[in-house]
Amino acid sequence: MIDEAFFARDAETVARALIGATLLVDGVGGVIVETEAYDREDPASHSFRGETPRNGAMFGPPGRAYVYRSYGMHWCFNVVCGPGPTGAAVLLRAIEPAAGLDAMRERRGLSDARLLCAGPGRLCQALGVTRAHDGLPLSAPPFRLLASDGPTAVLAGPRIGITKGVETPWRFALAGSRFLSRPLREPCVGSDGRTQRGGLPGGRNLDPIPDLNRSNRLDRKDPR
DNA sequence: ACCCAGATCATCT
DNA sequence: GATGATCTGGGTG
Question: CA of A180 vs C1' of B8, distance in Å?
Fold first, then answer.
């Protein structure tokens, strides 16, 4: 079981460490395969401009949930980090479904396991996470958070869907996972700190899901 | 494979 | 009044 000390570290460290851990909400969940780090000095972070009613949980103790509504219709699930109340958190972006697949399929209205939790909004819908979970400790029901079994190969890259802090490579993914919200674009920095190409031996792309690698501001590299 | 627009609302300017 | 840590379905090549 993951304890308090686990979260009492900076967001980047926790975001890396969460890859491979298992999250269950009322018994529904799986292996965390994609995260992003945000902290107080980060212009992309909700905490950047200080505490507000919405982001209050981010300024509370580490190890609690921070849940907010995104684009008026999705929920996004974060884990607050430390040390202490620093306004840092890790966004959970994708999970490899492992438990409660039927419940996920019903909530999502989909059967394809690859798409059940591939994205922060999808993940919340599949696990039934809502504002009701905001501020709750991850150490107690309905949550269960289990440390990963063995060593995990973690890749890093730029975060998704933001307009500020675009350069900071604080998106982390389990190497080779088919369950990411979108492929990690090269170059990817491996957990050993070295740049890797292609992600896996013999592989071309990390996760070439057709029609999932769609238009995005970040895709439009200035054609100049 | 890529591009686009609509849904929908709390938060902040 | 605009924006956004998103997702989906539709269109086109």
Answer: 26
